[in-house]
Amino acid sequence: MPESILDFARPAVRALTPYKGGKSKAEAGREQGLADYIKLASNECPYPTSLAVRRAIAVHALEINLYPDGNCRDLKQLLADRHRVSVEQITLGNGSSELLEMLVLAFADSARGDELLTTRHAFLVYKLLAMTHGLGYREAPLDGWAADLAQLAQMVGSSTRLVCLANPANPTGAVVDNSALHAFIRDLPAHTLMLLDQAYADFYPHSDEALDWLHEHPNLVLTRTFSKAIGLAGLRIGYSISSPEIANLLNRVRQPFNVNSLAQAAAIAALQDQQTLARTIENNTRYRERLRSLCEELDIACLPSEANFLTLDLGGAERADALESALMRKGVIVRGLANYAMPAMLRVSIGTPEQMERLFAALSACA
Question: What CATH number labels 51-271?
Fold first, then answer.
């Protein structure tokens, strides 16, 4: 006999392991007793927001007693103009993760036996969403460290409602060729929705090619975020681009006022500041390759990456754990990947020049 409300929690929820992000500087400080840390664990933009963004936040802070624009009209218009799509194709979310959940809510039904299909070592939120909503969940193998599209295509069946694929991928950083990706999407059945997760689009120069596929494929949805290159991770804002019909359905399941007014104002200001974005991208390219070169000198393998991080392959879980701990003692936080079934690997986000020089010194001393 159930004895409390906890006994009525859905079995799928009880089976979940909560998502755990990268260790914060405060958490690391409490563990190690050090006050000075740099965080290179969560693929965030390393630079503070620009003065224009801070001013926009300050102005709109005077009206946070009021509800935000629930339709995000100004931001949608700016995004539509930038991507050469209609306003009706844009949906805003509290981070792109909320948009992923909207897609599940709108299109996937556990009672129907629907499933979500992705690849091995995929972004953990895909599995979390499938389990939360009682969907089937399967992973296709990788080809090296990129998605094996041929294997993925073979696994698509009559119950496959969503295929989730990030390009570039997290936590590997790998990409699949756009021509092969387009062919894969072209061959998907009409009953399967294709989610192309482009969280790292700003770092991969070929990302915008996918925008041209939208008019051909009404089952394609692109998601992007302001949390990476644009540097608004703390405000939680992302968006999707899809057919107007899909956007209409997403807006039916979207929570009212899901994007706060400060996030909207900051996103508009950030989009108008292309100089800061260009600096972030240039810094990322330069120091990602410098980190790769140093790892080669230290005999540490790196996975290919087109994102704002490198994943280091230490060859074994024991060596990876030891290096993560040693870097932590030197005030450098990186991300162990055991929860991605990659226990021998560490993911290192690209920081500012000053942060990267500190990482290089620590890595050279510890590796």
Answer: 3.40.640.10
What integer pLDDT is reported at residue 14 of this predicted model? 77
Q: What is the pLDDT of residues 135-173, one digit of tens each?
A: 999 999 999 999 999 999 999 999 999 999 999 999 999
Among the listed residues 133, 205, 213, 193, the one whose alpha carbon sits nearest the alpha carbon of residue 167:
205
CA atoms lying within 13 Å on the CB side of residue 59: 11
Q: Would you say the C-alpha torsion 251, 68, 241, 132 has a positive or negative sign?
A: negative
Strands of the sheet containing 90-93, edge to edge, are 90-93, 238-241, 220-225, 193-197, 160-166, 115-119, 136-140
3-class secondary structure, 175: coil
Peptide bond before 171: cis, by omega within 30 degrees of 0?
A: yes
> Where are the domains positioned within the chain?
5-48+275-366, 51-271
**Can you read off the two tokens belonging to residue 97?**
């993760």
CATH class of 5-48+275-366: alpha beta
Distance between CA atoms of residues 96 and 75, nearest Å: 15
At 137, which helix (H) or strand (E)? Answer: strand 136-140
pTM, full prediction = 0.92
Does residue 327 contact residue 353 with C-beta atoms inside 8 Å? no
CA–CA gap between residue 302 and residue 181 (Å, rounded): 24
Tokens 């997290």, located at residue: 170
Q: What is the token pair recorded at 249?
A: 């359905």
Q: Are strands 301-302 and 309-313 parallel, antiparallel or unpaired?
A: antiparallel
Among 263, 205, 248, which residue's Cα sits nearest to residue 86? 248
Q: Name 93's bridge partners.
A: 238
- The b/e string for 164-174 (b: 16+ C-beta within 10 A; e otherwise) is bbbbbbbbbbb
For residue 199, give both structure tokens.
Answer: 């969280």
